Amino acid sequence: MREATAEVRPAEGVGVVARLSLLDRFLPIWIFLAMAVGVAAGYIFPGIAEVFDALRIDTVSLPIAIGLLWMMYPVLAKVKYEELSKVATAWKMFGVSVIQNWVVGPAIMFALAWIFLPDLPQYREGLIIVGLARCIAMVLIWNMLAGGDNEYCAVLVALNSVFQVLFYSVLAYFYITIASSWVAGPEAAAVVRISMMDIARSVFIFLGIPLIAGIITRFTLMGRKGTEWYETEFVPKLSPTAIVGLLFTIIVMFSMKGEYILTLPGDVLRIAIPLVAYFLLMFVVSYLISWALKFVYPQTVTLSFTAASNNFELAIAVAVGVYGINSGQALATVVGPLIEVPVLIGLVYVSLWAKRFFFNADGTVKRALAKPGA
């Protein structure tokens, strides 16, 4: 998901939305404006698509590659890799998170994609790609706003970064090729089949390269300038450029496929329905599981928002790298952040409201649920 663009600290009497940075608060609007600018550029300058397409690195145009890589770099430079060792001291919590993120989440998105988009394979595959891209950035903001455990959230972000490098390609191939052929039947195998090497290459380019750059940046600058300078000076200046990279990529994408945008409103609605269902299901299921396992409120919040959020930067990068800039898969991944921001803001309020029913004032689990209105 997108990188947080400013350090957000809880403040008494200040609403959730007001505590978001300007870029994050109006991100869906910025995305719509970027789409409009891209369509207008493609209409006014009809040759722009050929120019962008001519500047290629393998199968991806250079402008797209620059935008995608810059989306990922600030996100991965903020991850606290040095805290991964804490996984061993809270193995139960991190074990639950791994299951929620890498077993339950992809399976739920796969099911929803087939239920709501059985006749639209490109959008369906785009959503499956989204379901596999676990959130590694914006979840830090949702977690903080809802009163989650910031330290554990940082460790989960680092853990998900490692898991994405190791398992994203394998899971994408499994769900898009093997599992989809089970649903559609053997005769559809040729339609859904893609190369695992194509996915692995895109994951390496658009996750591996910025991951290595982020790790080098983090440990080099922290060693020279100190952790406090890195977290309070460098990261707040670098973070907003991730959204700039996202918006630049969207402008280029839509300038290259302007003729397709006439069908956008209906397509966005078809894609949005399973996305909304996914966010709600993942949050509620994770919240109830965490509560049933008697995790305290801050840990429950951290597990729930980590499971419900997604890394759309990676999803967009993989969709573009594997299927191409003009694909329906790429369009489906672009719709993601339009839906996620308002839904996740709403879930912050839901979490704060549900706290009084499921947890005591000190954050421990209630033995008996409170009656409504109590």
List the SSEs and their pairings.
Layout lengths: L21 H4 L1 H18 L3 H7 L1 E2 L2 E2 H17 L12 H26 L4 H12 L6 H7 L4 H35 L4 H4 L3 H30 L1 H12 L1 H16 L8 H29 L4 H12 L3 H12 L4 H31 L16
Antiparallel strand pairs: 1-2
Q: What is the CATH topology descriptor?
A: Na+/H+ antiporter like fold
> How are the strands ordered across the major sheet?
1-2
Helical segment tally? Answer: 16
Number of domains: 1
Report helical residue fraction.
Answer: over 70%
3D structure, described in words:
- This protein has 374 residues and is mainly alpha-helical.
- The chain has a single domain (17-354), classed as Na+/H+ antiporter like fold.
- The chain is 73% helix and 1% strand.
- The protein is built from 16 helices and two strands.
- The chain has a two-stranded antiparallel ribbon.
- A hairpin with a 2-residue loop joins strand 1 (56-57) and strand 2 (60-61).
- The longest helix has 35 residues, at 150-184.
- It is globular and about 65 Å long.
- It starts with 21 loop residues before the first helix and ends in a 16-residue tail after the last helix.
- Mean pLDDT is 81; it is low at 1-13.
Task: Please give a handful of descriptors for the protein shown.
374 residues, mainly alpha, Na+/H+ antiporter like fold, two-stranded antiparallel ribbon, 16 helices, 73% helix, globular, disordered N terminus
